[in-house]
Write a structure and sequence with these properties.
The protein is about 40% helix and about 20% strand. By secondary structure, the protein is α+β, with helices and mostly antiparallel strands. The termini are far apart.
Length: about 220
Amino acid sequence: MTNPHPPLRIAILECDIALPKTLLKYKRYGAISSALLESSAEAAGLRKEFDSFADIPWTNKLVDYVKEILAQDRVRLVGVCFGHQIIGRAMGARVGRNDSQGWEVSVTDVDLTAEGKELFDGKDVLSIYQMHKDIVFDHPHGVQPLGSTSRCKVQGMAVPRRVLTVQGHPEFTEEILVEILEVRHQQGVFGDEIYGEAMGRVGRGHDGLLVGKKFVEFFLDR
């Protein structure tokens, strides 16, 4: 698979200074033109899509880089969503679009494995924000499976002192998720049913802070 749209490089020369209120929103004058170009590209059907399974130069280079890191034992890897998928791909797992199950969005309960329960302080279920349609289909050789949902059986992977990943988004907040849902609903990515159901769960409690805590402990573990 080749990229149908080769890189397009556009230089924006800033020859003016925005007024205070505009500057507060855009930070610099050139960002006004950048916003127009991004919106125009999307209107023209050139939406920015980053697929972890894509056979394009920058994604392949990223996978190769992760393989190099995995080949040594000094640097530890944490992966979230796209990063989780890239690490899975680098470890030999199949990654792709989950066409049979579709989108997994909003606060979602992940059923933890025995390893997942031990990692996440004895919890049986981990609640975490989700926003993905791509998945790691199977666990790579040598990893500890951490959890699963009905839509995605590989919700997290661990290799002690080497790798820790989650498919969900522990860094997301309700505000962030609401904005994503609203924009994608307006764009037609999410229909009314998916949007309404996801909005109904967006304010639920979640375990993002616990996951972040485990990331820190993973980095510090000797």
